[in-house]
Structures are given as structure tokens and as C-alpha cells.
Amino acid sequence: MSGEPLDPVVVGAYLAPHHHELARAAASFAATALRPLPAAQDDVGARRQSREILGLLGEAGFLGHAVPQAFGGCAAGPPDLPDLRACCVLREVLAAASPLADSVFALQGLGSLPLTLAGGEAIRRRYLPGIVSGQVMAAFALTEPEAGTDAAGVRTRAVRDGDHYVLDGGKHLITNAGVADYYVVFASTDPAAGSRGLTALVVPADTPGFTFVRAQVLSEPHPLGEIAFEGCRVPVSHRLGAEGEGFKLAMRTLDRLRATVAAAACGMAARALEEALAHAQERRQFGQPLADFQLIQQKLARMATELTAARLLTFRAAAAADGGAERVTQEAAMAKMYATEAAQRIVDDAVQIVGGRGVLMSHPVDRLYRAVRALRIYEGTTEIQHLVIARGLLQ
Ligand code: CAA
Fold it and tell me: In the chain, what are the domain boundaries?
């Protein structure tokens, strides 16, 4: 067992040969194109660098894995859905090298999957080729100040006016706010109907009435922020699926993306283990390498075992989806819940092993420590994953 991303002994049973080829190509890209990039120091730097990374990922051909073959994406996988194992392979390798690059790839998936699942031909043709090339950046706008975990509580309104919807309201904690070219917006077309009153609309960033309000600054630089709609007119042709089907579309999208969040957690944990192993073998204290101390060995053993378990759950969920399972709600919730919690412990142990140097902002484990925390919250908190799993058991 090593800390290398995608140990074939561990996940081989779930992968096809082309996934291993993809892992090798992505690891080589990460080493040459991503690891040398200077870490973004602030929100402005993260915004600039996320567009730069998008271009690099597009040129290298990796963004094609966010879109199925039928709509211009890569040939692997089911014809009308992205190959989820390929997405997980990429998120694991990218997250190990650069949490920002992982986020850029993830949002191309999160912001394009609703179009793939429920968009009309014209809207898919307009946006999906640009998602693949990296010329178009996507965002997924569900969360509001009063609607986070309770996603059905969205207050942004969409009122039908002839062949348009008029949007009023606002969203916050939106990744790519202010840099995206379009937003998949979940708005209420029928407030009395709760989750059955939500409708998904594609809102281009240059639509009059749409504004980027302000950045929301994270400890690990990330392009996050608030957006608002005021009399923002969006053609009915930009609706994804039927009116009132938005909540289910959001949940179907999250079911697939949650497995990839687990993969990103595995990537961060794998990098943390790699850093911890290297440091434990090099660093000498009391006349011997740290790795000779049994308390350090115990940590390393636990980190490697938890990472292995997390990978197995992750690729099991992705393989079930690629195998044609109608829903992978349970599998994805188990993978996200376990992998993100385990990654937090693994990264924390890595910081402990690296010691004082591990809390310097310039050290990779400090960056991972700041980046890994959000994974237990976004796309459904750990607590929500517990409820989803228990609900499935008790049904
Ligand atoms: N797939 C398809 N349909 C689903 C579904 C799924 N996974 N989950 C629920 N549904 C359907 C149900 O069948 C039900 O349909 P009917 O109305 O026909 O009966 C409908 O949706 C409502 O479902 P529930 O009654 O189960 O909804 P609920 O309100 O009780 O609970 C929840 C849902 C699990 C708590 C859900 O709200 C949830 O997952 N919350 C977390 C939200 C979340 O993940 N937010 C993250 C924001 S996005 C983000 O984080 C992006 C980012 O940072 C980059």
C-alpha cells in the first residue's frame, strides 16, 4: 500500500483498463502542469487561477469526462451519462495535486449534469461543447441564506411571463460566482408546493438583472460568492425539465456528484499520507527517524487503512452508477459520509506527523487541512448523508 493516488491493488476490481490509463495521464498532467502553479493567495488570485486551470484542463482533454459521448464528451462510459468512475479518477488525482483544480473540474460536472439530464437539444448544443473545451465555465446555484441543508426552502422566485420567467432573489456560497459564464439556478415557481414547486433554469451571466454581489472569502482561496436576480428575464427554453421538477433534478445531480466528492476526499487523504510517509522517514528525532516510533506507525497504519476503505466505497458507488443502477443514493451517501470524515482524520494526522512545519501556510498539509474541511459540508452534510442512509435502511 502506498499513498499514491489510485492504488490499482485497491480499486482495480472496479476499474477498466482505460481508467488506469486516465489515472496515469492525469497524474502526469498534475505533476507537470498543476504542482508547479503557485498557490493562489487570495480570492482574486483564486478567480484568476481557476480560469487558467479551466483552460489547461480543456486543452488536455480532461473536461470531456464531465459530459457524455452523446453530447460531445468522452467515448468511455454509458452513452448518455458521464462515466462516473472516470470523474472519480480525475477528482482523486486533481485533488491530490491542487484542491482548486479539483473544484474547477467538479463544477464543470455539477453545472453541466442538469443540462445533460434534463436540458433541451438547443441548450445542450449551446453550452456543452464549451464545457468540454474549457471555454465555458459553469456554476450550480441552489444554496440561499435560508435554504442550505433544507434545499426545498429556496425563496428565489421565478414567475412566468409569456415565453420568459422573471427571476427575483439571491443565492450565496456559490462556487464560481462572478467567474462562471452561466448558472443553473433553482427557483420557486410555486412557493405553496414546497419541493414540488422548484424549477431549474439556465441563467447566462450576461443576462440583464443578474448581478455578482460580492465574494465570500474562504481560508483556502476559492472563487465563492453571492449572486442576485432583480427582474431577470430568462427564456422558457432555458428551463431544465418540467416546471416543479427542479428539486428532483438537483437531487439526481447530487446523487452522482456525491461519489465524486468522496473521490476528492480520497485524493486529499492520499496526498496527506504521501507527505506524512516522506516526512516520517526523513525526519530524525531522539537519534532515529520518526517512522521508527510505534506511535507514528500506528497513525500511518490507520491512515492507510481508512484511505483504502474510503476508496472502496467511492469506486463501488461509481461502478454501480456506471453499471446502470437507476439510483445510487445510498451508495453515494455512504461513500461521501465515510470518505470525507476519514479524509479529515487522515489530513489531521498528517499535520500532526509533520509537526510545526505542517502548520506553515506554505506546507502542502496545511493547505489540505484548510481545503478538506468543506467536503464534510457541501453537497449535503455528513448528518444529511446519515439520514439518507438510514432512510434507505428503514424504507
Ligand atoms: N433522486 C431522485 N428523487 C429524489 C431524491 C433523489 N436522490 N431524493 C429525493 N427525491 C424526491 C423524492 O422522491 C420526493 O419526490 P415526491 O415529491 O414525488 O414524493 C421529493 O424528491 C422530495 O423528497 P424528500 O421528501 O425526501 O425531501 P426532504 O425535504 O425530506 O429531504 C434531503 C431531502 C435529503 C434533506 C435533501 O433536502 C438534501 O439532500 N439536502 C441537502 C441539500 C444539499 O445537498 N445541499 C447542497 C447544496 S449544493 C452544493 O453544495 C454545491 C456546492 O457547494 C458546490
Answer: 8-136, 140-245, 247-394
User: For each successive 10 residues of the chain (395 residues), what is the average pLDDT?
Assistant: 59 88 95 91 92 97 93 78 95 96 97 96 95 97 95 96 98 97 98 96 98 93 95 98 98 96 98 98 98 98 97 96 93 98 98 97 94 96 98 94
3-state secondary structure of 220: coil
- C-alpha 77 to ligand 1 mean position (Å): 26
CATH topology of domain 247-394: Butyryl-CoA Dehydrogenase, subunit A; domain 3 (1.20.140)
Atom of ligand 1 nearest to the CA of 175: 54
Evaluate the CA torsion angle 81, 126, 50, 229 in order and state its sign: negative
b/e per residue, 189-204, with b = 16+ CB within 10 A?
A: beeeeebebbbbbbbe
Helix boundaries (H) for the chain: 8-11, 17-29, 43-59, 84-97, 99-110, 113-118, 121-133, 246-282, 294-322, 329-354, 364-372, 382-394
Please give the model's pTM, rounded to 2 decimal places: 0.96
How would CATH label the architecture of 8-136?
Orthogonal Bundle (1.10)
Alpha helical stretches, state H, 283-293:
none
**Relative orientation angle of helices 99-110 and 246-282, to the nearest 10 degrees:** 160
pLDDT of residue 74: 86
For the CA of 173, the closest atom of ligand 1 is 53
Q: How far apart are CA 112 and CA 313, in angstroms?
A: 25
- 228 CA distance to ligand 1 middle (Å): 23
* pLDDT reported for residue 9: 67
